[in-house]
TrEMBL record, chains A, B:
Cofactor(s) needed: pyridoxal 5'-phosphate
Source taxonomy: Bacteria, Bacillati, Bacillota, Erysipelotrichia, Erysipelotrichales
Protein name: Aminotransferase
InterPro entries from the UniProt entry: Aminotransferase_I/II_large (IPR004839), NHTrfase_class1_PyrdxlP-BS (IPR004838), PyrdxlP-dep_Trfase (IPR015424), PyrdxlP-dep_Trfase_major (IPR015421), PyrdxlP-dep_Trfase_small (IPR015422)
SUPFAM superfamilies, alphabetized: PLP-dependent transferases
Organism: Holdemanella biformis
Amino acid sequence: MRLSDFKVEQWMNDYENDAIYNMTDTCVKSLTLQELLDLEDFDFSNLILDYGQITGDVELKKEILSLYASGTIDNITTAQGCLQANELVMNTLLEKGDEVICVVPGYQQFVDIPKSIGCKVRLIELDEYDWQVGVKKFREMLNTSIKMIILNNPSNPTGTEYSNGFLNELIEVCKPYGTYILCDEVYRGLNQEVSISDIYENGISTSSLSKVFSLAGLRLGWIKANEDVIHQINVRRDYSMISTGPLVDKLGWIALKHKDELILRAKNIISTNKNIVREWLKENPRFECVLPSGGTVCFLKYGFDLKSETFAKLLLAEKGVFFVPGSCFDKKYYFRLGLAQDSKLFKAGLNELSNFVDEHLIS
Amino acid sequence: MRLSDFKVEQWMNDYENDAIYNMTDTCVKSLTLQELLDLEDFDFSNLILDYGQITGDVELKKEILSLYASGTIDNITTAQGCLQANELVMNTLLEKGDEVICVVPGYQQFVDIPKSIGCKVRLIELDEYDWQVGVKKFREMLNTSIKMIILNNPSNPTGTEYSNGFLNELIEVCKPYGTYILCDEVYRGLNQEVSISDIYENGISTSSLSKVFSLAGLRLGWIKANEDVIHQINVRRDYSMISTGPLVDKLGWIALKHKDELILRAKNIISTNKNIVREWLKENPRFECVLPSGGTVCFLKYGFDLKSETFAKLLLAEKGVFFVPGSCFDKKYYFRLGLAQDSKLFKAGLNELSNFVDEHLIS
């Protein structure tokens, strides 16, 4: 069960605290507790801090369900963040000898947890031109040994959004084999993206309050899937977490009751920041970027030969500008650019990046 | 990775909500949020709900450290409950082919997680007379293949407290092999029990706020171990949880800053309930029980031939008295009796148990 360093998380753990301009965070600018409590008049004083409802507060699960087009609350169980939701799905459904398909560049958890279980992981590369991929590559790889395809929609770090056409075509390919499609949809919500759990019986959606809802500090995630899968996960869950607890469940219920306000806030921040990037790219021809339709991140490409780790470390030390280097996703010439931070700091950080380039590189 | 039903947790999930008298809960009567907040004047309003400090708030870790006799905060990392702490330790240190020793009757997680990893699990039975065991049985079993011994001190469901003499002798046996001793110490704190992490380099202590601190709803646990083990666990942790979040960390810090008050409250409840049991046993000779020195639970034995599941279901349906049956721990003739509930309800529940026996069994 030994796992290697989770490169992007380790990088964040090691360097994030030194940042003046965090240009790489995937979470929309976090709310304070007071901002959350101000959304709803609710009396917490008599809340009993026992385990609460084991698979999640019923009122919370109703609000989670409202994010989807189908199902009942029996299609939902809660977890501590989307990360644990993903781990629970993989630990429950995958066994040694199974094969899975992952897409790269992507999130390391999807590759390394299956490997730690003893699965064979087959990789499909996104097209660097637009960070998309055709179903053809999946069709060629699919056979009865493939237990699960793992996607991230929209994705970290590329911002890829899989179209409805792509997903429907992929489902048709998977159906004869009953292949699970696990779709980490933690960046979903800004662009009316379809959920895999609404269009495919063996589609499993995971998400949380951390990214577009600006509440990573609650550590509240969930899984939506067919009832058989949810039952199996609930059995596994008793060995890992018991419950998410009544306090977090109630705070999560408030957040999702006011999802429209939170989503609007996130959209405004990201839209402003996207415009800042567009303008900045015009002035900085050494950089290019596929600006995504949804999600909170993209992959900023640079046109010179500094290794991404060296570049990121120098930039942080000298200007306080913090990026996760492409090397954390096994890609050269890239930084992960988060679009969800405070817009003033975001603009200032990009300017400092320009200054750094002017000062150190031959034009 | 398929795991069977976690019997005791499933039983609680299925039946607990129907109880009038919950006689089997392992947590000391839970605090309300207001009772917790009343302990300390702290302004939460500006708390930012981001991931917070990844391996746990430094002030929280200092308070956790105060529960132990040795170490620094670098010997500590946090988890979401003691259950996840245990899972992280086992998932990090155990690999397919390793052997572990577990003690029965005990907590199913310790047996089934290692099995799911592909470990061979060797069982040692506690002596039913006093729920103790000699080191001899471990010495006979120990060899280079045994990677870890897993104990629960004090234990669920038997209330076993391992003496300092036993632990020191066991450590001497383990040292030549470098065998890890994972000790789930979630019931520690009521009786000045020694921590394995204070007396053995390869001793790993796990605990949480759920049991003696009456705050299961915070889902806050931790691990104390040598720095190398903590480093390895922190690497694994990035795939499972990221952090416990700043809100829970601050609330946990308040609880532990006032640990003496919370422990005193727990001791008073349990001491009252133990006296109630002692009196009740005198009047009910069909029952017997080894009353434990620490912890919150014991194993109540009954002297008639009803299967424990049948007995528990009938008792719940007819009297609203809820027990976890011994069958959940693979033992006949037993109920798990929790000593930590509201004393009035506790006494009334035992009286209802007497009434049930009077009404249904031939004297």
